[in-house]
Amino acid sequence: MKNDRQSRARGGGDGLKSGEGGGAGERVKPGAGDKANERVWAGGDSDAGDVFKRSWGEDRLSALESRLGFGFTDRARALSALTHRSFLHEHRDWAGIADNERLEFLGDAVLDLAVGMRLMCLYPKANEGALSHMRAEIVDERGLSQVARRLGLGALLRLGRGEALSGGSDKPSLLADAMEAVFGAVFLEAGIDEVLRLVDRHFAPNFARVRPGEVGGDYKSRLQELTQGKSKVTPSYRVVSAEGPDHAKTFRVEVEVAGVVLGRGEGASKKAAEQAAARQAHDALMAEQGR
Question: Which domains does the chain show, CATH number per domain?
Answer without folding.
Answer: 2-208 (1.10.1520.10), 219-288 (3.30.160.20)
